[in-house]
Amino acid sequence: MPLDHLRTFCLSLPAVSEDVKWDHDLCFSVGGKMFCVASLEPPLTFSLKVPDDQFDELLSQPGVVPAPYLARYKWVLLEEGHPLSERQVTALVRQSYDLIKGKMPKKELKAAGLL
């Protein structure tokens, strides 16, 4: 999935913000908590959170590796050339968004306009 498609999709989700961290990573957050991190420098890679039961299954795919620094929290990194379709990737990004949003306290959800 090209970076512009990923960015458009992430920003279409409710209450999402973006910022650049670590000088070269575009981070998408909901309520100040990251749910997707994309490289701004080639090759295009991006990381996202997945449910515990999907973590090992996704890692068995070529081009999907444990996300550096975040794998212990069940984040995967999709490398350029991974075999997942754009539809599968958008479903994973949406799932990551939902996982992160689901852990937010009601007070934060309300402040972000998500309740």
TrEMBL record:
Gene3D superfamilies the UniProt entry points to: 3.90.1150.30
Organism for this UniProt entry: Rufibacter immobilis
Protein known as: MmcQ/YjbR family DNA-binding protein
Taxonomy of the source species: Bacteria, Pseudomonadati, Bacteroidota, Cytophagia, Cytophagales
